Amino acid sequence: SLYREIQHQGNNINQIAKRLNANEDFKQSVAAEANFAIKQLRKRILRACEVYAV
């Protein structure tokens, strides 16, 4: 469901943010993964808004 997907992606983004705030080393691929997750989440939210638009 959309709710579960948002929750899952939000958790992923929060984990990445925690690592960044802790100044831990991370690879560029982690940032790319977060960016991809955010873009996918945005697309799903926009699609859901179209479905439920009045």
TrEMBL record:
Annotated ranges, domain Bacterial mobilisation: 4-45
A Pfam family of this chain: MobC
Gene assigned in the entry: mobC
Protein name, as recorded: Plasmid mobilization relaxosome protein MobC
Source organism per UniProt: Salmonella enterica subsp. houtenae serovar 48:z4,z32:-
Annotated InterPro entries: MobC
Domain of life: Bacteria
